[in-house]
Amino acid sequence: MSPALLGPPESERTKSLRDLTGQELGHPSTAVTRLGRIVREAWRKPLWRLSPGDLAALMVEGLGLRWAVPLALEKLRLRPTVMSWGFTGDLLCRVLKLPPGFWKDWPALRSVAEEIANDAGPLVGERIPELAFQNALKTFRGEGEDAAPAPAPARARRQARKLPGRKARRKRAAPRKSRR
C-alpha cells in the first residue's frame, strides 16, 4: 500500500476538519490553554497543511481521529522519527498510545501502525527514546498502564472511602489566631 492511499482522498485534503465534520470548536483566540489553541487552529486548516504537531494535538484531544491518524501514518511511513512537540519519534509514540477502541474500529490502520512500529525498532535507543517507545508499544498492545481503565475521579474515590470533602475538612480545622 502506498503512503498516498492511506489517508483521505484528494478531494478531502483541501477541506478543513471543520468542513468535513460540520462542527465548530470556536475561535483559537478563545482557547484557555496552548493545546486548545493549537487544536482550534488545526481544526480550521486544510488537511494537507496539518503539521505533525497539529496531528499530535488532535490525537491528544481525540478529535478528528478518522482523518488525523491516517495522515500521521502517512508521515510516519516516510520517516518514523518525525517529531511533533517534544522528542524525535514522539508522533509515533502518540499514535501508538491511541485508545484501544479506535484500533478496533480501524483494523487496517492498526496493522499499518504495527508495521511502522516494527520498522522503527532499530531506531529505538539510537534516535527514539527507548522508554517512551516501549511504554507506547505496551499501550498499543494492551499491556501498559494506559491500557488499564481510567481511575475514578477524586470525588468518587473520596465517596468510596467515605472521607469528608474539602469543605468538611475546613470546618473541622481550628480557627486561626490573629496576630494583633
How would you describe the overall organization of this protein?
- Helix content is 56%, strand content 0%.
- It is an all-alpha fold.
- Helix 5 (52-61) crosses helix 6 (65-78) and helix 7 packs parallel to helix 10 (130-140).
- The N and C termini lie far apart (79 Å).
- The protein has one domain.
- The radius of gyration is 21 Å and the shape is globular.
Average pLDDT for all residues = 82
SSE topology string: HHHHHHHHHHHH
**Domains (count):** 1
CA-based gyration radius: 21 Å
Strand-helix topology:
Elements (H helix, E strand, L loop, with lengths): L2 H4 L3 H4 L3 H5 L12 H11 L7 H10 L3 H14 L11 H7 L3 H6 L1 H14 L9 H11 L13 H8 L4 H7 L8
Which descriptors would you attach to this protein?
180 residues, mainly alpha, 0% strand
Care to give the gist of this entry?
By secondary structure, the protein is mostly helical.
